[in-house]
Write the structure tokens for this entry.
Amino acid sequence: MSDQGVLFPIHPYRDGRVPRVAGSETSAIAAESQEPTLASKQGRVLALIRQADRGLTDDDLEVITGWRHQTVSARRRELVLKELVKDTGRRRYTTSGRPATVWESV
């Protein structure tokens, strides 16, 4: 049985808050520490994707911003859920040589 419904009982990010694991103090602390920069980091990711002629992968965003993978992928995922960014259907190789989704703005 999946715990997904327990972890995120409502659509993640719908209320503008970073999701957290229900009942976990450390998850709540980590989520709250991200909330002050959430909008600005989303805005930075969206601006970079909009400016890219060929779209960007999460790996491209990591290289450009210097942010960790978890930060980049979470902010990009939020933009996908807000229907501001979409999968192009194309793939491009990352710095580690693996294929990755190329994202573009809607």
